[in-house]
Design brief:
Shape: elongated
Mean pLDDT: 89
InterPro entries: CHAT_dom, TPR-like_helical_dom_sf, TPR_rpt
Strand content: 5-15%
Radius of gyration: 43 Å
Domain CHAT: 964-1237
Organism: Streptomyces ferrugineus
Strand order of the largest sheet: 9-8-10-14-15-16
Number of helices: 51
Largest sheet: 6 strands, mixed
Low-confidence stretches: 846-852
Number of strands: 16
CATH topology of the domain at 1040-1236: Rossmann fold
Helix content: 55-70%
Pfam family, one: CHAT
Protein name: CHAT domain-containing protein
Amino acid sequence: MSSDHRPDPELLNQQAVDLLNRATQLGDAAVLGTCISLFQGIVAMTPPHHPHRATRLYNLAESHRARYALTGRQDDADQSIGIGHQAVAALHDGDPNSALVLSNLSVTHLLRFQRAGHPNDLDGVIQFGERAIVATGAAQNIAVYLSNLAAGYLLRFEETGHLADLARAIDHGERATAATDAHAPHRTTTLTNLGAAYWARFGRAGHPADLDRAIAIGEQAAADTGHPNRATVLSNLAAGYHDRFERTGSLADLDRAIAHQEHAVAAAPDDAPEGATYLSNLGMAYRARFDRLGAVADLDRAIDHLGRAVAATPHGHRQFATFRSNLGVAHSDRFDRLGHVADLDRAVAHHEQAVAATPAGHPDLALRLCNLGTAYDARFDRNGNPVDVHRAVETLERAVIVMPADHPSRATVLSNLAAALRGRFDGLGDVADLDRAVAHHEQAVAATPGDHPDLAHRLSNLSLARWSRFTRAGETSDLDAAIDAGRRAVAATPDDHPNRALYLSNLGTSLQQRFEHIGSLHDLDRAIGHKERAVAATPPDHPSRATYLSNLAVAYQTRARRSGAETDFDRAVDLGLLALAATPANHPDRVLRLYNLTRAHQTRYEHSGDPADLDRSVDLAQETAAAVPFDHPDRARYLFNVGNAYRSRFQRTGAASDLDRAVDAAERAVAATPDDHPNRATRIYLLGVCYRRRWNTDGALDRSRIARLAEGALAATTSPPFDRLRACWAAARLAYVLDELHTARLLFDTAVKLLPLVAARETSSADHEHRLGANRGLVGETIAVHCALDDPGGAVQAGELGRAVLLAARLDLRTPLADLDAAHPALAHRLRRVRAALNAPDPPAMATPGGQDVDHVDRRTWLWAEHDAVLAEIRRLPGLDRFLLPPTWNELRPTTTGGAVVLLNAGLQRCDGIVVTADGPPLLVPLPELRLADVEGWATELTEATHDAGSYTGELRRQRVLTELLGRLWDKAVEPVLDAVERRLRPDDGVLPRVWWIPTGPLGLLPLHAAGHPGRPGALDRVISSYTPTLRALARARERPAATALRRLTVALDRTPGLPDLPATAAEAASLHAAHPDMPLLTNEQATAARVTGALPEASWAHFACHAGTDPDAPSEGGLHLHDGVLSVAEIGRRNLHEAELAYLSACSSGHVGRRHADESIHLASAFQLAGFRHVVASLWPLDDHVAAGAADHFYRLMPDTPSAEDAPFALHRVIQRLRTKHIGRPHLWASLIHSGP
């Protein structure tokens, strides 16, 4: 054939190019095959050094690439890249197509990587892309080449995590965007690539500005509604909005993310390679909305979309691990919401596959490890298998190691690792795990911005860890930190957030714990409120509902023990039953629910005495202990529960077998409790009680066991003060009955020294009174053991330390600061300011700028911290090292000058009097005829008789009871003591010595000053009597200077709403005011609390003719009945009156103290003394109106018309003597009046 008929390669090449363009537009694989054949022939006709060989190889490579893009045939990709490399090799210097050939080879490498995930392809993308840029110069296609290269750098960053690649991706993307005309067809792709790079940098560095930039760029790209890759554009934009929601919590952003992702899925062809990515992204957006709003339908949609993504992605695909991990997270969420174990197992399986498919250096490995570790931890929580919790910790520790220190998700990994460590501590008991958990939680919170949506969750986790460490180590700082973090978590959580219930319940648990530690009822009430809201916010089918119900039941049970309210007892049992019914039989928390229900039944039995509750508690306790493995870290708790239940039943039935079981369980509980555990003292206390029951039953006690018990009680220093006190007290009683008196004294003294700590300074007066009232009898027993050892000095010091604890604390806040003012006025000002705040009533609850409540306990905690800091600064100054410390014995001794102080004690073991004078050691006066049981009975009889008003039989009863009582007091207590007083003081003939009585316990309810037999000399004929709570209180009263001016305030109410009229008392008061009109008379409607408290600072003498009331359970709530209500003991005690001299309380029971708080001396008389009045006249029980009026009139006629009231005790003595003469045989009409003061 001649050369004229050979085919023209150029013409064939042009025809083939036209056919390739048409085939690409039509997406026709068959035509693309024809193109490949044509280009193969053309290349074959082209000599090796032909100037167009590179271009013709390029065309062949492009044909293979186009068919690969259409069909996914891997051999086409390989052929395209191989031929592309030949084309590059065939390029000659100055070839005008160099940039095109290089760029398209780069793109082919990119396409193969996206499809097959070969890491080496990324290097090819970048290598040939960079050469294409160099070869392009200022050509018009440089924007396309820059954009493609940016995409390559971004993908390599995603594979390797190298930040330099990400920086180049953004740089090239910005240059590509700047070089692209606004209407260029490739502008949308360029914008999409740049937005993806900014989004990736946000994911790595966490800068919000990068995310905002990514979204803004994405919105520009989405404006091109006709772009062939619109699905990718919308999916990228949706991812940006999703991430911004995760960062800010904006629901509007999340809704936009879902909408854009839905459109992306709809816009993508069924066979689109990126279709699985769009489905997975949509699923994660729905999952995020479930996390925020809690709608299960969103979660179901999420799992459906994520499952479809996984189904469409073969193993080995570059997104295989991502989609598996996402699906695993959604299944974990559904387990958390619905409690189906199958979901949890699926989650673990998906996460395990995701981690296995992730290379060692992959930047997402840490997050996938985190997801897997968290799933293991959740499965441990459900099944209790320690293998899972060990896997959880190990996997999460790997995640922390491989994650860069500055990664924005590091806080998530740290928080999850901390949660796993705390779970392992709960299951296995290693304290080191708990310390690490707290440290990691602190790091996670510190690394979380204040406006981050995950902050609340991390704070709540931190709160739980701190609470756990408090329950194990007993450090109050952990408990306060737990409450603070819990409050911040709740404050940072919207009301409609599904996790709000969790945070509320956790906060309630911490507040309840603080109540149990320091006794603040305010904390407990708030705990119940939070837990009620948690239950109300939780759907009936939620797996956490059982936990919240159980937590609420425990809170009601705790309040029932404090309040005694029947509704609280019943609510605790009912909620406990609901919680148990909602807990699967194989759930590891079931044993805890059984334990809580046991306690609820036993607590209700102790209140109601219903034996059905008692038997139920024993059965449940046995079931609980049987379900706990021998090596469980909380086994001691459940053994304690068994011992307590059997102890209660023994007390009811007397069955020796029940006592044996109680002792056995209590011994095993103590043995299983670490020495430094804060619950050790409680368990020692139970064992001590059980031993005491055994002693009372058969007199059997093992001295070696009691010795160990005593050592344990003294060593339990990590337990709360209240629990330590009870443990020492129980051990002390046992040591006493074994005649181990020195050991008993040590234990009793330790218990008494704890009394001031039991009444935590941060709590309210009512809380103080409740806590101290629970220890009735301790001081008396302590004094008794000192007396048994012939140690009256130690007995007096024990009485000083253990009695009037609250009064001593309040007196400390009134100590004059004149010397400090002169030497260090700034420190004096600071101390005075904080003391005034501490003395003031609690203000309404405050809130911090962050929104969390600041309650009274927090406020007082801060104030006391400031107080202690100032005090410590003062005591560091020369000569002030003992500033405001309790007075020493030598400092107190002069207090008794001019008479004697008589400490009269009725202890469980023995009764004694102790005479204290200024010129000799304390004198012990044993009182073998006096018995505590008798004193208790006399106090009961006296209280009942003196409050049985209005009937003739009541009058006869009072006469009989008082007459018999005064005779018995004289014979068994007062006469022997006064004999000793006279021997010590040796008074001159005709001169009656002064005696200040300090009666302990129920003796404080009895009229010691009036003891004697009718018609025979008694106490009124031997001494001038006064009363004082302690030597220290007497010393303080003596230190105060007398008033310098006489200004009398008279308050009189002859009628009080709801109470009997007092015509005689009020008339006498009006007469008194007429004789001394120093200040306006406050009577009836004018006698309001505000007017009275407003007038008191101006008065030196104050006379009250009105009713008064007492509250035996909360004595500080008693007070004077004024026209508009009660002026309480607490409110009176807050006054700090500088000219106060004499208060005459012609009011009912103004000196009466409830038996439960007898050693605290909380009554109107002590309140007026605390307010500043040096002398107070009061009554132990209600007086007849006419008798009271006459007594007051006589008293004032005996008093000199001077500001000083030094004659008050003598005048009152003469008044009582006169009344005794007038009403002989009717001691209830005169024995009630008492004097307190110097």
